[in-house]
Amino acid sequence: MKIIRKIYTFYGLIVFLGIMLMIFPFFWLYIRFKSLERYAYELYQFWGTSLFWLIGMPINKVYKGKLQKDKQYLFVPNHSSYLDIPAVGGGPFAMLFLGKIELVKIPVFGYIYKKLNIIVDRKNPRSRKKAMDDCRESLDRGYNLAIFPEGTISKQSPELLPFKDGAFLLAIEKGIPIVPVTLPYNWKILPGHHGDFTLRWHKNMVVYHEPIHTNDLTLKDIEKLKIQVHNVIQEEMYARNNMAFHVEPESKK
């Protein structure tokens, strides 16, 4: 089984880099000319979808709420794997990601990711502030945005890490609906922690929950909103992995 997994992992890596190299000239062109920039995000969707199809794990998209193509959203997914970005990026909406600076080091992908998304060095206060300002500017320009509120890959999946404030502050400031997104199985497919980068086949799924409107909320509601979204995603994670879910008291969040 270990040999099969290694072969499958190697195949997955070849597919990952192969698609990137194939579409790189188009990315370069779209990035170079601002008037074509939006097409780059659609190409990003193609990359994410194609990746999972070619490794034999097409994503089943489950919608628990109605998402409208002409609306702007802030997507908030759980984070348990390096596959989370293509899984969400290959979804029905073109979007920017707020991502950590370490991803820039990945060959080919890192260049594209840096040019298309908002990069943050979590250890640098100035970088964190600039990233938030860039997020505000992107939302003002009408883009959809995806932020992993855990801030890093969880090492305790399917249990979520505590959520950070950033995504919720932005949503309330701009009055943009938050869409909780559950990625229930990526932690089983490619864990991404403890040095384990072995690809495992598993059915795949992305669950888009009912949008949560923020028009009537103020910054005093950040903690309440965080808990609400955390519980929505955590309950789905447990349900899909056949585990019991218990809502924690607010004082523990």
TrEMBL record:
The keyword Zinc does not apply. It comes from Aureibacter tunicatorum. It holds the Pfam family Acyltransferase. Its EC number is 2.3.1.51. InterPro entries: Plipid/glycerol_acylTrfase. GO terms for biological process: phosphatidic acid biosynthetic process. The chain crosses the membrane at residues 7-31, 43-63. PANTHER family: 1-ACYL-SN-GLYCEROL-3-PHOSPHATE ACYLTRANSFERASE (PTHR10434), 1-ACYL-SN-GLYCEROL-3-PHOSPHATE ACYLTRANSFERASE-RELATED (PTHR10434:SF64). Signal peptide: none annotated. Residues 73-186 form the Phospholipid/glycerol acyltransferase domain. It comes from the Bacteria. This is 1-acyl-sn-glycerol-3-phosphate acyltransferase. GO terms for molecular function: 1-acylglycerol-3-phosphate O-acyltransferase activity.
